[in-house]
Write a structure and sequence with these properties.
With about 400 residues, this protein is an alpha+beta fold. The chain has 15 helices and 16 strands.
């Protein structure tokens, strides 16, 4: 038996898990501030939904954990959080706009690499029912606030519009080959311009005119069309929301998923580290059997954010989640230790007590190693006086106080 997690997955021990939880808490707090409500969906979905044409497409079978249940139903672990949302909106009557957030695991049968796993957390927000680019920019603004709160300084969001690319490429590429062109361009960061050129030729698509379009550097240089107009409006709104300095136009950004229809985004934590993306998908809900409803959204990959923050030492010096350790001088006071520990917990003070029947010295050693900031010492003398020693583990100083005063200080 191999005592290690399956390929492409990992364990997060308490130190790492608590860091991830702090990131999740920041995301949740910002999302709810902007009026997004939580949604929970199953870890697996029907393969029909996951492979819907105009959604993830039939080719997704090679990229998901696909299986059949005991009744021979085709299923797959969710690839992202957008397809489950599309199903929910299609099958449920909801007020519009419907603003939801979802922070859960997704699975992709991908080749594991640096900052790439087969199981990872996504933090996702979407707005359904609005055609206004206000919705898109509100999503971008929420993401900017999250990254600011986490301490990122050099992040930026690349923005483009698939409408303008489609309009240009249709002049020299057959419509049914456009999705292949988009998928190839989506690999530009990985394989470079030469790689894109080579892959397009392998698909019998002449690359020269496509590469000319990809060299456009500014919105002003774009031909006049609806895509350009939407980008100009988006950047105008970004200025009003106060995030214009974080938003950058990039003609090469397409996002590889089939369901995107116009503006697309990608979040970058400095050079070459992407941690999320999204865009507008106005046809997807109707494609999976729902109403004709516009939608937009953006997702963050929390595992990548976690690793970048760890590498750059962006977390404060970690202390234990426990505030105080209640230590007994000897076993004769264990009953009182239990009562006092429970009283502290009733006052929402994170508390530990000895569960290993260790001597007093070993208890202090444990509290020190676990970086618990305070130790409350319970002995027979302290119980008689109804005053207890509270030891600051950082300075080593002790104060003798009544329990009520100790609770007030620790709170």
């Amino acid at each position: 038996m191999k005592l290690q997690p399956p390929k492409g997955t990992r364990d997060l021990l308490p130190e790492g898990a608590s860091k991830l939880q702090k990131i999740i808490d920041v995301c949740r707090g910002v999302f709810e501030k902007y009026g997004f409500g939580p949604l929970v969906t199953p870890a697996f979905e029907s393969f029909d939904l996951l492979s819907a044409k105009g959604g993830l497409g039939e080719a997704v079978k090679d990229e998901i954990y696909y299986f059949k249940d005991k009744s021979d139903r085709e299923l797959g672990l969710r690839f992202d959080l957008t397809m489950p949302l599309a199903r929910v909106v299609s099958s449920t009557s909801l007020p519009k706009p419907f603003k939801r957030y979802q922070i859960e695991k997704v699975w992709r049968y991908d080749n594991p690499a640096n900052l790439r796993w087969r199981e990872f957390f996504q933090s996702d927000i979407d707005i359904v029912g609005s055609t206004s680019l206000l919705s898109d920019v509100e999503c971008l603004t929420a993401v900017c606030e999250i990254l600011e709160k986490l301490g990122f300084k050099d992040y930026y969001i690349r923005v483009n519009n698939r409408k303008l690319l489609q309009k240009e490429f249709e002049k020299f590429v057959e419509r049914d080959k456009l999705i292949e062109v988009f998928r190839t361009i989506d690999k530009l960061d990985k394989i470079g311009l030469e790689g894109v050129e080579s892959e397009l030729r392998a698909k019998n698509i002449e690359p020269e005119k496509i590469l000319v379009v990809l060299k456009i550097k500014s919105i002003e240089s774009l031909p006049d069309n609806e895509g350009k107009k939407e980008l100009e409006e988006l950047f105008g709104l970004a200025r009003k929301f106060g995030i214009a300095k974080r938003v950058k136009f990039d003609i090469s950004l397409v996002r590889g998923l089939e369901y995107y229809t116009s503006v697309v985004f990608e979040v970058n934590l400095g050079a070459k580290v992407s941690c999320g993306g999204g865009g507008r998908y106005d046809d997807l809900i109707e494609t999976v059997g729902g109403q004709d409803l516009p939608a937009t959204g953006i997702s963050l990959g929390l595992d990548r954010i976690l690793e970048v923050m760890k590498e750059n030492k962006m977390f404060e010096t970690e202390k234990s989640n426990t505030k105080v350790f209640v230590a007994n001088v000897d076993n004769s006071t264990i009953k009182d230790v239990i009562l006092i520990a429970q009283e502290l917990r009733k006052n929402n003070i994170n508390t530990q007590m000895d569960l290993m029947e260790r001597n007093f010295g070993k208890q202090l050693e444990y509290a020190s190693n676990a970086q618990i900031p305070y130790v409350l010492i319970i002995g027979r003398e302290e119980l008689k006086k109804k005053k207890f020693k509270l030891k600051d583990m950082k300075t080593g100083k002790q104060r003798e106080l009544a329990l009520k005063k100790i609770i007030s200080l620790l709170k």
